[in-house]
Specification:
The complex is a heterodimer of chains A (134) and B (333). Chain A is mostly beta strands and 134 residues long. Helix content of chain A is 13%, strand content 34%. Chain A has a single domain (11-119), classed as Nucleic acid-binding proteins (OB fold (Dihydrolipoamide Acetyltransferase, E2P), Beta Barrel). The longest helix of chain B has 21 residues, at 311-331. In chain B, the strands form two sheets. In chain B, strands 1, 2, 3, 4, 5, 6, 7, 10, 11 and 12 form a ten-stranded antiparallel beta sheet that branches. Chain B has a two-stranded antiparallel ribbon with strand order 8-9. Classes of the chains: A mainly beta (134), B alpha+beta (333).
């Protein structure tokens, strides 16, 4: 967490700050055009392969439904370049690993979702070797 | 404390900051408007052939937005405390649930955001003084509307931005920080300066040998750049842009843009980079942004964006599905 220097902050100014929006801090592609916020998914699946490709990595998982049928889903991530800089390699997320994905399903109805929040089943986030996002 | 609803994490910092009591220390003024303060008697290094040496790996990552947020219209700078709050907010928000109706993107570990620029400015744009891209001219508005008349947001891939299509961010788009991969490598030879841009993997080869611009009939997405040295500063003037230029998704130009950039190494680890957009056909006045570039020892990797650009079929497919749904609704009795 960022160290906050001691000092005061005018309440209205603080509220305004929380509305801070960085125009360039939107994803490379329009997420809202591709994924439907009204179709949230929460998937627990076994990784079958990871495509470390640009502009977005894709994590493939097999998800077993209540009826035992298996669905093959593709989960979208960001640019692998960022993770490579942090020392993540293609061995860092091996097939067979179980992950939990919260995201939104593709608008076209295919078995794709954005990986808005990807964790291990115990709640740990993936790839936290370093100060992520700084 | 009902105002602390946007984010629990930022809220805690906010609470601490608001209760802490002491007056906030303002950052010292920069030497030049929006620029970094030169460190003492700094002498800019030179190449063996005598040009100012800008070579190396640089990053312009920052949490400072290009344009000043509307609600901070009266604020050119933040206090240190406010900057820390903003940095915390921007660098952690992707791990929190998005607002209703927003599908979100992906965890924070995929992002590289940096921190507020030197001087705690609230926008990268320093001129006009309101920190905003100036209004388009009526002629430009008319041309843009005409080009989109009768078209939906995703009838074809051509309705999407050059950036989404992995073609280029154009200029000045390619020199503006985004959200990751904002790394640059500068390499010089006598007579040429090359800039490798990680995002979209654009490369600029800029002659600094006095040769004239290309013939005006030759138009390019990244225009045609010519550089010259003014003291320690590399001045680059770029013209000959394609009339179809859509830079960074929102800079519209009919190809009449004249872009002037200035690169000045003001410290061992800092380039003061600034550009001025001069395009009277498009904008009602010129505008200038100042974006510090900091030395980095991180590696640049290839960003072969088009190779795996599944987003375009995903976006077009999404719109087709929405249209089919709307048709179904129409035929319902």
């Amino acid at each position: 967490m960022t160290a906050v220097p001691r000092g005061s902050c005018d309440r209205l100014a603080c509220v305004a700050l929380l509305l801070w929006l960085s125009p360039q801090a939107a994803a490379h592609h329009s997420s809202a055009a591709e994924f439907d916020a009204n179709k949230p998914v929460e998937l627990t699946g076994v990784i079958t392969k990871v495509e470390w490709i640009n502009p977005h990595a894709w994590i493939h998982i097999d998800v077993k439904g209540a009826d035992g049928a298996v669905e093959a889903w593709k989960i979208e991530g960001g640019s692998p370049n960022v993770l490579f800089r942090r020392g993540v390699t293609e061995d860092s997320l091996m097939p067979g690993t179980v992950i939990v994905v919260e995201g939104a399903r593709a608008r076209d109805g295919s078995l794709r979702a954005n990986g808005r929040n990807v964790t291990f089943p115990d709640g740990r986030k993936l790839f936290l070797q370093n100060d992520a996002g700084r | 404390m009902s105002f602390l609803i946007t984010s629990r994490r930022a809220g805690l910092i906010l609470l601490f900051a608001c209760l802490a009591g002491a007056a906030a220390a303002q950052s010292p003024d920069a030497a030049a408007p929006g620029g970094d303060t030169p460190a003492g008697a700094w002498t800019a290094p030179r190449t063996p052939w005598g040009d100012p040496d800008l070579q190396g790996l640089w990053t312009n990552r920052t949490t400072t937005p290009l344009q000043r947020p509307a609600h901070l219209a009266h604020r050119e700078t933040l206090t240190d405390i406010e900057a820390a709050i903003v940095d915390e907010e921007v660098t952690s928000r992707n791990d929190r649930a998005p607002a209703p109706g927003n599908p979100g993107t992906y965890n924070q570990f995929w992002w590289e955001m940096g921190s507020t620029v030197s001087g705690n400015r609230t926008s990268l744009i320093v001129d006009p003084p309101d920190g905003r891209v100036p209004p388009l001219t009526p002629k430009a508005v008319e041309a843009i509307l005409a080009s989109r008349a009768g078209r939906g947001p995703a009838d074809s891939w051509e309705d999407r931005t050059l950036f989404e299509r992995c073609i280029t961010r154009g200029l000045p788009g390619a020199m503006i920080p985004g959200f990751y991969n904002h790394n640059y490598q500068i390499v010089q030879t006598p007579g040429q300066v090359a800039i490798l841009i990680e995002m979209i993997h654009d490369v600029r080869i800029i002659p600094v040998d006095g040769r004239p611009h290309l013939h005006p009939a030759i138009r390019q997405w990244m225009g045609d750049s010519r550089g010259r040295w003014e003291g320690d500063t590399l001045v680059v003037e770029t013209t000959n842009f394609s009339p179809k230029s859509r830079s960074h998704g929102f800079f519209e130009s009919a190809g009449t843009l004249r872009l002037v950039e200035r690169f000045t190494r003001v410290a061992p680890d800092t380039i003061d980079y600034r550009f001025t957009v001069d395009d009277p056909e498009t904008y009602t006045r010129p505008w200038t942004a100042v974006i510090p570039m900091h030395r980095t020892d991180e590696r640049i990797f290839e960003f072969a964006c088009h190779e795996g650009n599944e987003s375009i079929p995903g976006i077009l497919g999404g719109h087709r599905a929405a249209e089919a749904e709307a048709e179904k609704e129409k035929v319902k009795p």
